[in-house]
Amino acid sequence: MADLRQLLRDLPVFAADPLPVFDPAETPGDPVALFTDWLLGAIRAQVPEPHAMTLATAGPDGDPSARTLILKDVDAAGWRFAAHRASGKGRELAARPYAALTFYWQPLARQVRVRGPVVPESAERSAADFLARSAGARAEALLGRQSRPLASLAERDAAVAGAAERLARDPGLVPPEWTLYAVRAEEVEFWQGSRDRDHTRLRYRRDGAGWTKELLWP
Fold first, then answer.
1. Which of 114, 150, 164, 194 shows its CA 20 to 30 Å from the CA of 11?
2. Which residues contact 110 (CB under 8 A, 6 or more apart)?
3. Number of helical (H) and strand (E) elements in the chain, helices listed first
4. Which residue, 148, 149, 154, 127, is CA-closest to 138?
5. Mode of pairing for the β-strands spanning 210-216 and 178-183
6. CA 74 centroid distance within chain
7. Integer Cα distance of 165 and 163 in angstroms
8. How far is 54 from 87, CA to CA, in rounded Å?
9. For the CA atoms of the chain, what is the radius of gyration?
10. CA 105, CA 78: separation in Å to the nearest integer?
11. Torsions phi, psi of 168, nearest 5?
12. What is the rounded CA–CA span in Å between residue 8 and residue 5?
């Protein structure tokens, strides 16, 4: 364990050269505009899976859980992701419709944190999201068994194959439980890392129909 501790301490951080410049004084009044700029910057920098994010939710007991999934869209109405309502995150959101998102673009030493209430999108938008998924992803999602105990991988493979056959017979099939969710941000924080640890943190907080900005200590 002592060797592992030392190994972790010796791992390099913020290795990219140069790191991006972030001037809070030059930021827009809307966090969606800045987020879109940072996301496009991550795409241009060829950050792997720049649309991956950690979604944190809590159950009725208040205990948190987190997992990584894919951002589907973002605009003034919110940050969107999709899930089956019977999944763990779906059940937790039904009990406590509030979530936090974290994006981390490691090569750029950039992080974005989003917090706010979660609302389901319309059945039409949810269906469109489901039908835009790959065939394999639709077959798995059609089962609605995520996070439940599994007896064997063979059981999984047989169930997914059966779901794929159903979709082949009915390509427009959409499970009614499939839901596109939107996080209506109340706070959005932008974090730019620095090698000297003088990290820059800028937080947007919703203020009525607009936003206020404030710097945070690193």
1. 114
2. 20, 22, 38, 42, 104, 190, 191, 192, 193
3. 6, 10
4. 127
5. unpaired
6. 11
7. 5
8. 16
9. 20
10. 20
11. -65, -35
12. 5
